[in-house]
């Protein structure tokens, strides 16, 4: 059973994790657009100090998400890359058992790109595989890293992909793997997806090796409908498809478990190099916020903001990453102009 979302007097409270880099400025835009559009959502802000040695802030963030059920998130920095210091982003997903990441990649007609009319859904296992964070140096100069694949999690994510296909009238699921080399681990993931596929005779199921998938995505992306894959391949494939559609600044991703949902930009970048310069593309985080509104059932506001975002992009108000010269501020102002027009 999903945990009820925090709901007081017709308003929802959601956890806001600005994270590092461009996260905080993008969250300012989300708040500005929400308040301009009169969205009935209140934020519980949780800052995570990247320099902290302990995980007190992170634990507080997790408690807040458990209470509210829903969060909007920027990328959290982890101070050290030493062994034993685990990624806080990974820890958060694992603690909340957010076992699936869904990235719906649809082309924007107004964005210049090599391929038009792409519509691919990436369903990625989100809590294990290569992200098990079990690495050690067994003897000096020899490092071992564990990749963990379980039947339970492979089955949950496969089931999610096929149920998603059924619900959304999708026709095909492609399992992406490297089972020719990783016969046991990827083999289990692949075999599990084949077994689950048998329960969905109306949906075509095929499979493809990760390396070929990257080539096929770049040369012939229209053959893909739903891509089902493990954690690291999912990260790679997500970045390839986002790159095809216009880069890191556009698309949003969703992290689901049985109880909690976390929304964030699709490629999960920190954007340290472009922070504080008024050049980051605010669209991916705003799209994540719109996804969150739909999830909460605030359809009117979701549609209002979504339409304003689409008009802004299709009118060519683009930040640098999309080849334009608009500032973040100008993009947000244009979105608010369209919200006002639709509300008048
Ligand atoms: P990571 O956090 O994985 O290190 P980066 O922050 O280096 O990733 O981001 C990867 C690339 O994507 C960088 O070139 C960064 O400037 C770009 N990028 C990420 N987010 C945005 C955004 N919202 N707008 C424009 N460019 C972005
Ligand atoms: Mg970086």
Automatic annotation (TrEMBL):
Any Gene Ontology biological process: tricarboxylic acid cycle
Entry-linked Pfam families: Iso_dh (PF00180)
Protein keywords: Mitochondrion, Transit peptide, Tricarboxylic acid cycle
One Gene Ontology CC term in the entry: mitochondrion
Keyword Mitochondrion: yes
NCBIfam families reported in the protein's UniProt record: mito_nad_idh (TIGR00175)
PANTHER family reported for this sequence: DECARBOXYLATING DEHYDROGENASES-ISOCITRATE, ISOPROPYLMALATE, TARTRATE, ISOCITRATE DEHYDROGENASE [NAD] SUBUNIT, MITOCHONDRIAL
Protein name: Isocitrate dehydrogenase [NAD] subunit gamma 1, mitochondrial
Species per Swiss-Prot/TrEMBL record: Habropoda laboriosa
């Amino acid at each position: 059973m999903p945990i009820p979302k925090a709901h007081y007097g017709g308003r929802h409270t959601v956890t806001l994790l600005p994270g590092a880099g461009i996260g905080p400025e993008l969250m300012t835009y989300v708040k500005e657009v929400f308040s301009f559009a009169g969205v009935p959502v209140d934020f519980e802000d949780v800052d995570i100090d990247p320099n902290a040695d302990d995980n007190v802030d992170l634990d507080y963030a997790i408690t807040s998400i458990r209470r509210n059920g829903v969060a909007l998130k920027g990328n959290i920095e982890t101070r050290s890359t030493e062994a034993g210091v685990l990624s806080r982003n990974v820890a958060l997903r694992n603690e909340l058992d957010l076992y699936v990441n869904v990235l719906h990649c649809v082309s924007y007609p107004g964005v210049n790109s090599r391929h038009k009319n792409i519509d691919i859904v990436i369903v990625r296992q989100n809590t294990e595989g290569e992200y098990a964070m079990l690495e050690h140096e067994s003897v000096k100069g020899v490092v071992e890293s564990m990749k963990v694949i379980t039947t339970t999690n492979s089955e949950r994510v496969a089931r999610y992909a096929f149920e998603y296909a059924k619900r959304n009238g999708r026709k095909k699921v492609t399992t992406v793997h490297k089972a020719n080399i990783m016969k046991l681990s990827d083999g289990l993931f692949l075999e599990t997806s084949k077994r689950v596929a048998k329960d969905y005779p109306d949906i075509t199921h095929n499979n493809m090796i990760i390396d070929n998938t990257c080539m096929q995505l770049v040369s012939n992306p229209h053959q893909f409908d739903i891509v089902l894959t493990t954690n690291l391949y999912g990260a790679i494939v997500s970045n390839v498809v986002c790159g095809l559609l216009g880069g890191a600044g556009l698309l949003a991703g969703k992290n689901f478990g049985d109880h909690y949902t976390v929304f964030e930009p699709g490629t999960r970048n920190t954007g340290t190099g472009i922070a504080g310069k008024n050049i980051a593309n605010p669209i991916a985080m705003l799209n994540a916020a719109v996804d969150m509104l739909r999830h909460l059932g605030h359809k009117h506001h979701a549609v209002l903001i979504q339409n304003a975002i689409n008009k802004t992009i299709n009118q060519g108000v683009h930040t640098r990453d999309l080849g334009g010269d608009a500032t973040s501020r100008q993009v947000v102002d244009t979105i608010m102009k369209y919200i006002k027009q639709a509300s008048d």
